[in-house]
Amino acid sequence: MLPLALPLLLAAVPCADVESDRQLLEQTAQTRPAELPTIVDGLETRAGGMPLRPPGDVSVEKLASDVSARLREACSLQEAAAREQAALPESEPARLRAILDRPEFAQARKRNTDLLQRLMRQLDAWLDGFFQSRGAQSFAVATRAVVLGLALAVVLWVALRLRRWRRPSLAQAPGAVGTSTALALDSPGEHLRRARESLSQDTREAIRQGLLALLSTLEERQLARPDRVKTNRELAAELPGRGAPAPLVQEVERLVRWYDRTFYSLSPVPPEEASRFVEDVERLHASVPGVAA
């Protein structure tokens, strides 16, 4: 599964300088390791905010190697997408035929063709038994043509639906830019329950529910007003102004940084890290004090 808004992120990757960036990362890791995080931050900014850091604490050599590998992988995906787009014909019918000719639709074409053939044979047998005269048979031929046209329309509709389904979704995660309406949240306990249930099946959904539990806790304690127009880090930056103690602010910022880096990463979320994130949110929920009105 690709993270959210992947085509927009790939379009911003600085592929023209990927080789010089790789050399800069390696030289910095060897001669000036303290400056490496700053250089990685700059690369993430140039890449349109796409996370390049690996999850967890790693050595400077591992950080430089992983960032270089992710840049190359993103550039490869960008080049493949450009080639695929350039290979498509200009006209809509030709584009549709090119899409249906792709290998991933081979089984679908085979199943649909077999289904249509069986349907036509059954309809033909029914019409032959119902109509006996030559005039009636002419009518049956016309009816078969109409049915065939309708069947082709159904096939085209299914193909368009498959194309829309395969198109990457631009759905927004909590904290992403969207409408200015308030983010509707359930109680922290409900989000935590969903997070624990998702740990064994979908770790990415588990940490998303964990973040929602964190935001719901802050909203419940009147320490934040989650809104779709605000990013997670902007919400964390508002905590001191709402009276949140410094240890709480530091813990929320740590959890938000880890979530943003992990949720939007191309790598799968390790189950043990997802479980640890949910447990940290549970502890924070139990320890956050209320704010007097």
What would you say this structure looks like, in words?
This protein has 293 residues and is mainly α. The protein is built from twelve helices and no strands. Helix 2 (18-31) packs antiparallel against helix 3, helix 2 (18-31) runs antiparallel to helix 4 and helix 6 (106-130) packs antiparallel against helix 7. It is extended, with a radius of gyration of 27 Å. 20% of the residues are buried. Mean pLDDT is 74; it is low at 1-11 and 168-180.
Report the C-alpha radius of gyration, rounded.
27 Å
> What string gives the helices and strands in order?
HHHHHHHHHHHH
Which class of secondary structure composition applies to the elements?
mainly alpha
Low-confidence stretches: 1-11, 168-180
Most strands sheet: none
Quote the beta fraction: under 5%
The total count of strands amounts to 0
Morphology: extended
User: For the residues shown, what is the average pLDDT?
Assistant: 74
SS element count, helices:
12
What helical percentage do the residues reach?
55-70%
* C-alpha termini separation: 44 Å
